[in-house]
Recover the amino acids of this structure.
C-alpha cells in the first residue's frame, strides 16, 4: 500500500505543478478572476493532499493501520471530487460541477478524521 500511495503522491504532485503552470500561463487571460481562483483552489488542495499522501506512504512502512490506509483512499477520492470538480467548473463553466466540490471536501475531512483515529489507536497500543 505504501508504494501505491507514494506513486499516487508523485503523480498528484507532478500534475499539480503542471496544472498550476497551466493556470498561471494558459488560463490567466482566458478565465474570469472567479473561475481562475476556483482552479487555483483545486491546485492548492491537490498539493496539500499530495504532500499528506507522501507522508502517509512513508508512515505506512511503520504501521499498516487500516485507519491510515483509509485516510489515503479518502484523500485520493477527495482530490478527484474536490479538485476535479473545480477544474471542470473553471474550464467548462458548467455550474453543476459546483455541488460536487463539497462532497470532495467532506472526503478530505473524513480522511483527516481517519488519520486522527489511527493515531489515537496507536497511542492506545491497538
Amino acid at each position: 500500500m505504501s508504494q501505491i500511495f507514494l506513486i499516487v503522491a508523485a503523480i498528484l504532485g507532478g500534475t499539480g505543478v503542471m496544472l498550476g503552470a497551466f493556470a498561471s500561463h494558459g488560463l490567466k487571460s482566458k478565465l474570469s478572476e472567479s473561475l481562475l481562483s476556483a482552479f487555483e483552489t483545486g491546485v492548492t488542495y491537490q498539493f496539500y493532499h499530495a504532500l499528506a499522501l507522501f507522508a502517509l506512504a512513508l508512515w505506512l512502512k511503520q504501521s499498516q493501520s487500516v485507519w491510515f490506509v483509509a485516510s489515503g483512499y479518502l484523500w485520493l477520492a477527495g482530490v478527484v471530487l474536490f479538485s476535479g470538480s473545480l477544474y471542470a467548473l473553471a474550464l467548462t463553466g458548467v455550474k453543476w460541477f459546483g455541488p460536487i466540490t463539497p462532497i470532495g471536501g467532506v472526503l478530505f475531512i473524513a480522511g483527516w478524521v481517519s488519520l486522527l483515529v489511527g493515531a489515537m489507536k496507536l497511542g492506545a497500543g491497538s
Q: What stands out?
A: The two ends are 20 Å apart (CA to CA). DSSP finds four helices and no strands in the chain. The longest helix spans residues 33-59. The mean pLDDT is 94.
